[in-house]
Amino acid sequence: MKVVRHQQIVTLLEQTQTLTTDELAVALSVSKETVRRDLSELQQQGKIQRSHGRARIIRRNNQGNESPFHTRLKSHYAHKSDIARHALAWIDEGMTIALDASSTCWFLARQLPDIDLTVFTNSHLVCTELGKREHIRLISSGGQLQREYGYYVNPALVPQIKTLDIDLFIFSCEGVDRSGVMWDSSAHNASYKSLLLKRASQSLLLMDKSKFNRSSEVRIGALGEVTHLISDVEPEQVP
Q1: In angstroms, rounded to a whole number, what is the distance separating the alpha carbons of residues 114 and 107?
Q2: Which residues contact residue 63 at a Cβ distance below 8 angstroms, ignoring those fewer than 6 apart?
Q3: DSSP 3-state assignment of 168?
Q4: Within 17-68, where are the H helices?
Q5: Which long-range contacts (CB under 8 A, 24 or more apart) does 72-81 make?
Q6: Among 13, 61, 126, 175, which residue has the fewest nearby CB atoms (within 10 Å)?
Q7: Helix (H, G, I), strand (E, B) or coil at 174
Q8: Sheet arrangement for strand 168-171
Q9: Hey, where are the domains in the chain?
Q10: What are the C-alpha distances in Å from 157 to residues 90, 121, 151?
Q11: How many whole angstroms separate alpha carbon 117 and alpha carbon 127?
């Protein structure tokens, strides 16, 4: 039965961390098409994550699945830089914008002109980059620095955000599943993004094609809450 097979898949992934579609088909004695359907359903349920023909279990309440910043920086870097360049058209002098700690927003920070602009961010790397600008007013979320992941964790974020009128929140995420739910691998980052998404007048999601039809550990919100999406592929072109 399907329910039993789903549990078998979850158990196998818990034991091995990651398996290919072919390996799962052999282990379960079913076709690859059956495995793909099962994995798709398990992904929608937020139990597994799929990438490049492999599946892995989602382990919650830790940072075990969160990639270090330098790893994320190397992934699809050309696409991310191009996506960030398109986001510049949304930024006007005098605005207050918020950036997350994604590698795509770091690429955006590198391309920001030195104009009258207020930038709020939880990213240590964005702070380092924009600290070189003379005309940009830079506000860090502060808190404890997670060095490996390049962001700050601040329990006092909510009252801090209330003092800012944010015109535009620009962010990325770990993935958007087929139901249009945005996911992140870190509870801290997901909380930051969810809060800024609600506080900002407008929002801009920057996402390369590898992140479509993917879920992760923590739910951020619905894609419908986002004002605009910038990607290297149109959503209707994603299989």
Answers
A1: 15
A2: 146, 149, 185, 186
A3: strand
A4: 21-28, 32-44
A5: 72/102, 72/103, 73/103, 73/106, 75/103, 75/210, 76/208, 76/210, 77/103, 77/107, 79/208, 79/209, 79/232, 80/104, 80/107, 80/206, 80/208, 81/107, 81/111
A6: 61
A7: coil
A8: 136-140, 117-121, 96-99, 168-171, 202-207, 228-231
A9: 2-57, 69-237
A10: 25, 11, 13
A11: 14
**DSSP H or E run through 199:** helix 187-199
pLDDT along the chain (239 residues), means of 10: 82 81 88 88 78 72 51 60 93 97 94 96 96 96 90 89 94 92 89 94 93 87 96 64
Q: Is 209 strand, coil or helix?
A: helix
Residue at 144: amino acid letter: Q
Which backbone phi and psi does 220 adopt, to 5 degrees?
A: -95, -50
CA distance 191 to 185: 11
How many other CB atoms sit within 10 Å of the CB of residue 144? 11
Which CATH architecture describes the domain 69-237?
A: 3-Layer(aba) Sandwich (3.40)
Residue with token string 């992941």: 149
Q: What is the CATH number of domain 2-57?
A: 1.10.10.10
Which residues sit opposite 81 in a β-bridge?
none
